[in-house]
Amino acid sequence: MNTTSAPPPPGRPRLGVFKFASCDGCQLTLLDCEDELLGLSAELEVAHFAEASSDAAPGPYDLVLVEGSVSTPEHVDRIRRIRSEARHLVTIGACATAGGVQALRNHADAGEYLSVVYARPEYIASLATSTPVSAHVPVDFELRGCPIDRGQLLEVITAFLAGRKPDIPNHSVCFACKRRGTVCVTVAHGTPCLGPVTHAGCGALCPAYGRGCYGCFGPAGTTNLPALLPLLRRDGMDEEDVGRFLHTFNVTAFTAVEERGPGVTGAGGEG
Fold first, then answer.
1. How many CB atoms sit inside 10 A of residue 129's CB?
2. DSSP string of the chain?
3. Which CATH architecture is the domain 14-162 placed in?
4. What is the pLDDT of residue 260?
5. Is there a contact between 8 and 62 (Cβ–Cβ < 8 Å)?
6. Measured between alpha carbons, how far is 145 from 138 in angstroms, rounded to an integer?
7. Where do the CATH 3.40.50.700 domains begin and end in the chain?
8. How confident is the model over 20-40, as pLDDT tens digits?
9. pLDDT band at residue 271, thresholds of 50, 70 and 90?
10. What is the pTM of this model?
11. Of 74, 86, 72, whose CA–CA distance to 137 is shortest?
12. What mean pLDDT is predicted for residues 245-250?
């Protein structure tokens, strides 16, 4: 992954925001920036952002934000076209960086799902797998989360405007728990928690309210999932429970980490 950036060319750089298979939550995070949007609009020309305006201008774009996974044949062609028009491409959210919840189909028979869910499955054009954008085109930066964090998104856009690497930490949710003084739910209560292997960015919200982290920000920069699995089993989870715990927002990312073993580098980069 390319995490360095040259300053944008003279004049206001052009921003494009595109959606693939997703719930729109990460795009809404950009809209939720509210006060900051005024400042951003002075620095960026929002050329294409269907969630905000029907006035969509064609490329090329200096910065493209992509939400959602590649889940249909049309998506494959479309993401390649967008990449060819993008000077820098950043994927935002669990769907775009790891296939999302819809990647659960990767572990099942997608054809069987179609036959059960749709009355006329022959009209449905769908791939057998849901994959991250990086499986199809080069990606300059991945911003994880379900949804992404507002502050991290602003940091990525600001870094692009300044021509520098985004300052997105690679540490785990456990680090964030310590910073806010949250008692470890696993140590204190035996609550299963993915905090030790999950990328920080949510502010350790779930442990702060007494529940275990469930990994919505994907694998941390350096993870040791094989060391965590015995603790999950100690706290009452059998093999099926552990599988369900991991197979949610970032199912393909955590599967890759488990297969590769301890010490994997990830979040914000390869996952």
1. 17
2. -----PPPPSSPPEEEEEE-BS-SHHHHHHHTTTHHHHHHHHH-EEEEETTT-S----S-EEEEEEESBB-SHHHHHHHHHHHHTEEEEEEESHHHHH--GGGGGGGS-HHHHHHHH-S-GGG----SS-B-GGGTS--SEEE-BTTB-HHHHHHHHHHHHHTS-------BHHHHHHHHTPPPHHHHH-----GGGBBS-S-SHHHHTTS----TT-B-SEE-HHHHHHHHHHTT--HHHHHHHHSSTTHHHHHHHHHH-SSEE-TTS--
3. 3-Layer(aba) Sandwich (3.40)
4. 54
5. yes
6. 20
7. 14-162
8. 999 999 999 999 998 888 888
9. very low
10. 0.86
11. 86
12. 86
Pairwise CA distance, residues 196 & 208, whole Å:
15
Relative to beta strand 141-143, strand 14-19 is unpaired
How far is it, in rounded angstroms, from Cα 256 to Cα 265? 11
- Gyration radius from the chain CA atoms: 19
Tokens 């540490």 correspond to: 171
The predicted structure's pLDDT at residue 258: 58
CA–CA separation, 124 vs 53, rounded Å? Answer: 28
Block residue for tokens 């609550």: 191
Q: What are the structure tokens assigned to 121, written together?
A: 């499955």
pLDDT in tens, 167-225: 998 899 999 999 999 999 999 999 999 999 999 999 999 999 999 999 999 988 888 88
- Give CA–CA dist 252/271, Å, rounded: 9
Among 12, 121, 14, 139, CA closest to 70: 139
